[in-house]
Amino acid sequence: MAWRGWAQRGWGCGQAWAQPSGGRSCEELTAAVVPPRLLGRRFNFFIQQKCGFRKAPRKVEPRRSDTGTSSEAYKRSALIPPIEETVFYPSPYPIRTLVKPLFFTVGFTGCAFGSAAIWQYESLKSRVQSYFDGIKADWLDSIRPQKEGDVRKEINKWWNNLSDGQRTVTGIIAANVFVFCLWRVPSLQRTMIRYFTSNPASKVLCSPMLLSTFSHFSLFHMAANMYVLWSFSSSIVNILGQEQFMAVYLSAGVISNFVSYVCKVATGRYGPSLGASGAIMTVLAAVCTKIPEGRLAIIFLPMFTFTAGNALKAIIAMDTAGMILGWKFFDHAAHLGGALFGIWYITYGHELIWKNREPLVKIWHEMRTNSPKKGGGSK
């Protein structure tokens, strides 16, 4: 009975507090109705529950992958992994986020071409030995009894029938297929989004610029890119050589992602990007610039052919329009950056970079020549 009376008085307090003509606060009404000696801990909690009417504290959520509607657009694209549960942290000073990617782009490009020059030196040095080893292997095969249905021999026969360009891009295709399989593992989703998608709003900025070049979430996306790379592999390797092609391809992936970073920071449309399209656009643009009169066709429409020069112009026009108009399905900034890098490298870059590799090769040659003489000798 006592508790019921308290409840009734407490509810009356709440009604009096709610009336605008009351004139007294809830605490004053409570003191007037209930003696002070009855105000215990339990009753105080009851009064606070009835008379407090406090707003629940507002939860501050971190920003998602975008500041505007671009996040929704990226979620609609089938080429991008689902990012509803992924949180990105755009910097309050967007321009500063480009400093580290800029240094990484310049440093990685220099290391790629330097490594390619050393690789070419080692390849030329071992070519004579490989020639004699090949003659010896052919002679042993001629006197060795042949095995029927030898799987290894069939694989070697298939491999030897490939062109230099096709053998070069086989490793790239295998790496893309491996990363595509990793996307199918549910426990790796957060790691893949963190390191295999490039986004200037992510905490990891530099390594995804390279790793995302080998990353595809959609099977159609990967198949289309790898088909184009395989189709142009023989031409680009014949133009540049195996070592120079690898340097251009890897550098193009990083450079195209940096251009994408710049566009996203400038427009405020943050979101993840992935795929080899930027690097493949460099390959396509380089071949079309070097052989503008070559004839190309679309796989689904082989009866319609067009020149490589006209194809390059159409691709650049489409990606420029997509970047300006804000089309979301593709990363048009990365495509455009890759295409412009391919045109620049064939026109000027080969002369400025690759033909000036001799000082580095001489330093490496001296290191290789002098290294066996170290230790034990006296002047």
UniProtKB/TrEMBL annotation:
One GO cellular component term: mitochondrial inner membrane
Locations listed in the record: Mitochondrion inner membrane
Reaction equation(s) it catalyzes: Cleaves type-1 transmembrane domains using a catalytic dyad composed of serine and histidine that are contributed by different transmembrane domains
Broad enzyme group: hydrolase
Example GO biological process: signal peptide processing
Principal cellular location given in the protein's record: mitochondrion
Enzyme Commission (EC) number: 3.4.21.105
Pfam families: Rhomboid
Keywords noted in UniProt: Hydrolase, Membrane, Mitochondrion, Mitochondrion inner membrane, Transit peptide, Transmembrane, Transmembrane helix
Membrane-related topology note: Multi-pass membrane protein
GO molecular function: serine-type endopeptidase activity
Highest rank taxon of the organism: Eukaryota
Domain (Peptidase S54 rhomboid) ranges: 209-349
Residue ranges crossing the lipid bilayer per the database entry: 102-121, 165-183, 204-224, 244-262, 298-317, 329-347
PANTHER family linked to this entry: PRESENILIN-ASSOCIATED RHOMBOID-LIKE PROTEIN, MITOCHONDRIAL, RHOMBOID PROTEASE
Family note: Belongs to the peptidase S54 family.
Subunit structure: Interacts with PSEN1 and PSEN2. Binds OPA1.
Protein's name according to its UniProt entry: Presenilin-associated rhomboid-like protein, mitochondrial
Species annotation: Enhydra lutris kenyoni (northern sea otter)
